[in-house]
Amino acid sequence: MNPFLPLLQPYPFERLRQLLAGVTPNPAYSPISLGIGEPKHATPAFIQQALVDAIGRQPSGLASYPATAGEPALREAFANWLATRYGLRVDPFSQTLPVNGSREALFALTQTIVNPQTVPTPGLKPVVVCPNPFYQIYEGAALLAGAEPYYVASDPARNFAPDWDSVPEAVWARTQQLFVCSPGNPTGAVMPLSEWQKLFDLSERFGFVIASDECYSEIYFRDEAPLGGMQAAAQLGRSDFKNLVSLTSLSKRSNVPGLRSGFVAGDAAILQQFLLYRTYHGCAMSPVVQAASIAAWRDEAHVVDNRALYRAKFAQVTPLLAEVLNVALPDAGFYLWADVGGDELTFTRELYATYNVTVLPGSYLAREAQGHNPGKGRIRMALVADTAECVQAAQRIRDFVQQRPR
Questions:
Q1: Which CATH class is domain 5-43+302-403?
Q2: Which of 16, 128, 272, 327 fits 338 for a cystine, CB–CB 3.0-4.6 Å?
Q3: Span 63-299 CATH architecture
Q4: What pLDDT, in 10s, does the model give residues 244-257?
């Protein structure tokens, strides 16, 4: 067996299942889950119809093997969206590639980039740097590539923004890939241009690749849309996107998590090697999924409507929770990252038992590093259900906190 497999920790939702095992929720309340970030808004009908039409088209959309690089029309849709959303000019055929959701691509990209044979200090592993808290795929991708994850200290006063200045130079010297997530999971924080400048300078100095996870970019609460990695690079005169790969997805933007569709864009030299890896990996996107994806990327009206639903929902839920928890409206994304003022594991179990509401302990989304786990004492709530259900969950949480002994 792969010797790195034992290094993997149980996934957060498996840990949550184990935490709640044996707990009987109060049957007086219907179950409400705020634990998993799975979009619950309705999938737009035109995307579903595009999928159906592609299946029925003759010859059938299922009658041939798809190309790993994707159809030209799909890659042109990526490039057009990047132009509309970020004002970027990219070559669709050298600077974009389709992927089966950003999660698959985050993992596969790391396997392409990490090279254990080019570490400056013999006997040490290459490093993959990631924020802390973080999306768990970053860690698993690093470990299975034979690298050592390095968890950057975070600053609670700046919405848990990574403290890049705290990373020792010896770590940067071994770093081959850096994961960033903006808007962030679980905090919803958006990276400013100055932070991108710092990371580009570090990448230039030490030669590592920046993998920018941007799957939450279209759900935001400010008037100004979140800054993207490639957008930041272009503004800073790095229009070749050297050592930068951005990853995005339709799952949150278009409410199609089951479609497993997204794309990567950026450094053409890296994408050329990534395409080679993917050709052998066997992860070409189905032609019918490509057809539905083209329709989704070409339409913005449904994205605006989806964003309005989240804004209205958060406007109702956040004040309710802020009455009893240390929580605030994030910059973007669909999570609330709340301080529960104590043991988050006990809070999660007791909330589930008393009011049948499921949340995710923050410590499951982070690692013990620099002497502490930054998720300790916090919970993540995914406001993905409809507004009425999320408001009801917030009311139950408010009642639960008010009734708890202090």
A1: alpha beta
A2: 327
A3: 3-Layer(aba) Sandwich (3.40)
A4: 999 999 999 999 99
